[in-house]
Specification:
Layout: H1 17-22, H2 25-30, E1 40-43, H3 51-55, E2 62-66, H4 69-82, E3 87-91, E4 104-110, H5 119-129, E5 130-141, H6 158-167, E6 171-177, E7 182-188
Parallel strand pairs: 1-2, 1-4, 2-3, 4-5
Antiparallel strand pairs: 5-7, 6-7
């Protein structure tokens, strides 16, 4: 098991009022410019923090990908409670997404790439599954000292992220700081 992965026992941390204030899912999803019929992949879906709001915005399929079966079980129970249709769960790694090429119109990748070694492998997979002209929203930890979150050496600064994306041939559409610790980048294939 990847020692950088989030511990499923701490799932409550993924959806709490403080996180919603700092990283409002609705405002972040606005950045993707969804039109309502996209197929969307949520990489590292966890408990559905972005999966459910994304499903409310599209008539397409939302694919909830997570490496950990405990996270998918939790997500499944929430899907049953919320009677959410058009969400499909997939167990798999960000480094090797079990999905065909050019399958989705949009990708959400929140707090995942710092767990991928190297992060470029996860980005290559996002590039592979995105349709031409598709957009991705990446949310990550800025590289600075904070009391919580992953160690410094696991973090990717927003400047590094933009440079990596541009070097891979993506077109960076926006970069935004949400707090001192978190940023988002929207990019297009």
């Amino acid at each position: 098991m990847n020692d950088k992965r989030f511990d499923p026992a701490r799932i409550a941390k993924l959806d709490n009022p403080e996180r919603r204030k700092n990283l409002p899912p609705e405002q972040l999803l606005d950045l993707l410019g969804l039109t309502g019929s996209e197929d969307i992949l949520d990489v590292g879906a966890g408990g559905g923090y972005f999966t459910f709001p994304a499903a409310a915005r599209t008539s397409g399929t939302v694919y909830a990908l997570d490496a950990q079966s405990q996270m998918l079980e939790y997500l499944k129970s929430r899907m049953e409670e919320q009677k959410s249709g058009h969400i499909e769960m997939i167990q798999g790694e960000a480094e090797q997404i079990p999905m065909e090429d050019a399958k989705v119109d949009a990708v959400i990748c929140s707090m995942v790439l710092h767990e991928v070694d190297p992060p470029e492998q996860g980005l290559r997979e996002i590039q592979r599954v995105l349709k031409k002209g598709g957009r991705a929203l990446c949310i990550e930890w800025e590289r600075l000292e904070t009391e919580s979150g992953p160690p410094q050496n696991h973090r990717i600064s927003s400047a590094e992220m933009v440079e990596t994306l541009e070097n891979m041939g993506f077109r960076v559409l926006s970069r935004q700081a949400w707090t001192e610790a978190f940023y988002s980048v929207v990019f297009e294939k």
